[in-house]
Amino acid sequence: MKKLDGILLIDDDETNNFLNQRLFARLGLCSKVKVLPNGNQAFNYLYNISRNNYDLQSPEYFRPDLILLDVNMPVMDGFEFMDLYEKLDNDFRSRIVLAFLSTSSHPLDIEKSKKYRIEYLTKPLTAEKMSSLISRHFPEEKQSIPNS
Amino acid sequence: MVEYLQKLFESNGFMPHGHCYFWRPEILFTNVIGDGLTSLAYFSIPPILFYITRKRKDLTHRPLFLLFALFIFACGATHLIEIITVWKPFYRLQGAIKIITGLVSVSTAVVLLRAVPTLLALPSHDRLEKVNARLREEVAERERAQVALRQANEALETRVQQRTAQLIKTNRELEREIEIRKRTEEDLLEKNQELVRINADLDNFVYCASNDLKAPIVNIEGLVTALKEEIPQRSEHVNAILKRLDGSLLKVDRTILDLTEVSRLQNEVTNPPVEEVSFAEVLEEVKSDIQDLIAQTGATIEADFSRVKNIHFCRQDLKSILYNLISNALKYHNPLRKPHVLVQTEPIPNCCLLRIADNGQGIDLEKHEYKIFSLFRRLNDQVTGSGIGLYIVKRILDNNNGRIKVKSKIGEGSTFEVYLPKQ
Lengths: 148, 423
Known about the structure:
The complex is a heterodimer of chains A (148) and B (423).
Chain A: E1 6-10, H1 14-27, E2 32-36, H2 39-50, E3 66-69, H3 78-85, H4 90-94, E4 97-102, H5 107-113, E5 119-122, H6 127-137, H7 140-147
Parallel strand pairs in A: 1-2, 1-3, 3-4, 4-5
Helix pairs in contact in A: 2-3
Chain B: H1 2-6, H2 25-55, H3 62-87, H4 91-121, H5 125-230, H6 236-267, E1 275-278, H7 279-289, H8 291-297, E2 300-304, E3 310-313, H9 315-331, E4 340-348, E5 351-358, H10 365-368, H11 389-399, E6 403-409, E7 413-421
Parallel strand pairs in B: 2-4
Antiparallel strand pairs in B: 1-3, 4-5, 5-7, 6-7
């Protein structure tokens, strides 16, 4: 499986975050994982990065390749976050892959998520789900060339 | 003629009439007294006749009466002049009076003659009396009739009043009844709204429960998996516990999945996505979903969709119906024999009949008929189940104006007949 530079987890469920981080570690997927508990904090975080408003030395700040977004969250839920996120700089967004990660398999939620044209994964997140997501959005050969 | 009238009171050259009697007193006075009495009588009659005509306003022959009065007066005058001419020879005057009298007499006679028919027609006093008596009788009879009528009227009036009173009373009772009904209706409406609210709350609760329970269960599953990975070397005891943990999680998972299905159905009442669905295809999907159960029980599933192959229906709903009915048939199979399930379709007017027959344990319908389609009703405690499956099937059919019937015999098996309306 191809390695990623960084993953942003937006979810208020700590246990779920713990399990997902553990999964990433076991898969050796990436070293940088940032966890934020709601859409509001996540948006502020991404806004600052898109404007380069951050300490380049800090390991806490990085531009993620992949964002996994919960739907039901306090303060600002996944859909509200998406409405704001789509206003961010186009170029900045073009290099980020987004996916909803929700417990809900309710058709209303799935229907509502369709307008954002991003992946919809149901919890629990498994190694299979991760590998298929990555193989779809992060082709192996492209990035290996500049690195070598 | 003029000379005659001028000399009316001249008597020159004539002898008084007394000379004809030779002035013999016995002839003269009998004549004079007779004429005197006659004229006296004749002069007294006209005033009487006048008086009568004056008083009787209804007199029919008034002119005749007056003519008679004039005629008698004229006759009286001829007798008076007879007396006068005995001594004074006013023969011209006498002639004039006699001519007038004659004329009056003739005209009276003519008028009288012409009045004969009407005079004859005048009823006599007796006849009038009789008529009168009859009339009086009639009047009396009429009065009696009137009295009877009045009495009947009064009786009628009292009856009308009684009826009216009764009607008013009945009316009031009706009004009260209507008032009570209205209040009951309002109460019912209120209760109905309350039920709708409660139902909505319940739907909401099912949604929240399925959603909110899911997150921690998913987490527990993950944690159990993590635990297994962290302890690769496990004792028998730990393995037994982990196995039970897995079993419990599976059960909770299934319940939550069913609840999610219920919630989906509740929120999709309006328009589920309908398409042309093949029974055979959906059955294959269901079979692959429950392949473990089929393998475990050694079940055979026979299908005959030759009579109706496809139906215009929501794919997910049809799958749910088949899934729940077939998995029930396998779960509640008869331990004495291997389960066999026959799935058939049959066309009936406006519907497609889907029949699922098994050779399982059977259901005691007398005891459970109304319970089997209720939420969280489990009739069997030996087999794992959430008690939601048949409720889901019933709910799908309710949403689609369909029906479900069940026939069953204990120890022999059950047949579910599902009526899917053509859409």
